[in-house]
Design a protein that fits this description.
single chain; mainly alpha; DNA polymerase, domain 1; 0% strand
Length: 88
């Protein structure tokens, strides 16, 4: 998939989730998307295609994350935790 198209998809999926809490966590990705390499961006896109209940459990509630999503969830959590810091 073309990088620009993938960026648009991730920006959309990160911006419009089912709950305010999930919106806030996912939107913390937005300032960092350009700095991700193609593989990281594709992996985040796949994560954001998961169901709302899974994302809520993994990203908001801190529930157990399946091994295949641990890196991506960790990245999102990191960005959310550091959202008030300036992007380098």
């Amino acid at each position: 998939m073309d990088r620009e198209l993938l960026l648009k998809e991730v920006k959309y999926r990160a911006s419009y989730r089912g709950t305010l809490e999930l919106d806030n966590v996912c939107r913390s990705l937005l300032p960092h998307l350009e700095s991700l390499d193609d593989a990281e961006l594709a992996a985040i896109a796949e994560l954001l295609q998961q169901g709302e209940n899974h994302l809520m459990t993994w990203l908001v509630e801190g529930g157990e994350v399946p091994e295949q999503w641990q890196l991506q969830v960790g990245l999102v959590r990191h960005f959310f935790k550091n959202r008030d810091k300036a992007v380098a």
